[in-house]
Amino acid sequence: MISVEEALARLFALVEPTGAETVPLRAAAGRVLARPAIARRTQPPFAASAMDGYALRPQDLRPGAVLRVIGEAAAGGGHDRPVQPGEAVRIFTGAPVPASAGHVVIQEDVLREGDRITIGDRPGAGSNIRPAGGDFTEGMQMLPAGRRLGPAEIALLAAMNLPAADVARKPRVALICTGDELVMPGETPGPSQIVASNAFGLIAMIEAAGGIAHLLPIARDSEDSLGQCLDLAAGADLVVTCGGASVGDHDIVASVAQARGLSLDFHKVAMRPGKPLMAGRMGRAAMLGLPGNPVSALVCGRIFLLPMLEAMLGLPARAVPRRRSPLARPLPANGPREHYMRAAMGPAGLAPLASQDSSLLSVLAAADALLVRPPGDPARQPGEEVEYIPL
Ligand SMILES: Nc1nc2c(c(=O)[nH]1)N[C@H]1C(S)=C(S)[C@@H](COP(=O)(O)OP(=O)(O)OC[C@H]3O[C@@H](n4cnc5c(N)ncnc54)[C@H](O)[C@@H]3O)O[C@H]1N2
Ligand code: MOO
């Protein structure tokens, strides 16, 4: 059995970046930039007024000064003639500030009568002018490759006059659930059957991370059935199986996949839940074999599958970040496997939930966090700091 850390390092070595594609900005939310984004424009492209008021020469900004209003500059327009001593231009937010006017006095600080303004007693000192290029200038690299695009990044790309973004192609993930006992949600299970739940949690995880999940038919516990499903996975970047990973007579994923060309990299990780995890390469795809127990499948999804997808998208190849919290309840010594305990955060800190059986989705859904216990961790008392992964 290898450690979680080693398993993750090996998984990163099994995947590669998916490459780039160009998508319109409307479709870029949540995608990861594949190339640095360079500004096609300077913003603002001109010195712009930040307020509604009057543009004038800074020397004319004296309490009581009377100035003649010679024209108007509105956003989208402007006023061509330079402002001379004793003159002002009516100006609005976003308008180009006329040449030679180094100051905008806000309209609240003046008295206007006809085409004259009188500066009030205490005009604000700030120029109220946004300099040309104050945000960015043409040719600047504004976002690096590997940046996930949220609303702010997408608005920035638009302001840079880029109508589309070069983003990482979404990893295609083929999902195969295995087991004679499984039926799809909504079907009528036979007396010894259960509903296949894992795939739906995994699909949610994959698509939230930026992948495309292809759910293949349920593979029955026969070489033929699983073989056919593996054939259907052709073209995927990553093939994920679920179940059939352990040591029972019907746990045939490793042997059938190997017969179809899987080069197995590892099988079994010193963790709980998730021990029977396996991985390797199948032709051009990476293969990840998850255990069938529902909590094991989803915990392994969080600890291994998500970081793999991130690496394929060009994000940093790293383990899920952990946080620290005081422990709310005592814990006995841990065994030789890294334990990911379902836990709830309360005022006194993190408390492991009562049952840690890896079949209990109700407990996983009630958990806020996975409390991570290193192999061989000694007994812990309330108040001691432990590591956890938020859920
Ligand atoms: N003798 C041993 N038995 C087991 C060991 C072991 O080391 N020695 N390991 C146990 C551990 S740990 C796990 S985890 C499970 C994993 O086994 P498999 O990956 O082979 O999974 P299955 O046997 O196919 O299924 C386990 C369990 O999960 C249910 N299941 C399967 N797929 C789904 C699905 N898509 N949705 C919902 N539930 C699913 C399945 O019905 C079983 O109840 O092995 C232990 N055994
Ligand atoms: O590892 Mo199994 O995943 O403990 O239930």
From TrEMBL:
Residues 174-311 form the MoaB/Mog domain. SUPFAM superfamilies: MoeA C-terminal domain-like, MoeA N-terminal region -like, Molybdenum cofactor biosynthesis proteins. The keyword S-adenosyl-L-methionine does not apply. Keywords: Magnesium, Metal-binding, Molybdenum, Molybdenum cofactor biosynthesis, Transferase. Its cofactor is Mg(2+). InterPro entries: MoaB/Mog-like_dom_sf, MoaB/Mog_dom, MoeA-like, MoeA_C_domain_IV, MoeA_C_domain_IV_sf, MoeA_linker/N, MoeA_linker/N_sf. The keyword Metal-binding applies. GO terms for molecular function: metal ion binding; molybdopterin molybdotransferase activity. GO terms for cellular component: cytosol. Belongs to the MoeA family. It comes from the Bacteria. It is an enzyme of class 2 (transferase). Its EC number is 2.10.1.1. It catalyses: adenylyl-molybdopterin + molybdate = Mo-molybdopterin + AMP + H(+). Pfam families: MoCF_biosynth, MoeA_C, MoeA_N. It comes from Mangrovicoccus algicola. This is Molybdopterin molybdenumtransferase. Catalyzes the insertion of molybdate into adenylated molybdopterin with the concomitant release of AMP. GO terms for biological process: Mo-molybdopterin cofactor biosynthetic process. Pathway: Cofactor biosynthesis; molybdopterin biosynthesis. Coiled coil: none annotated.
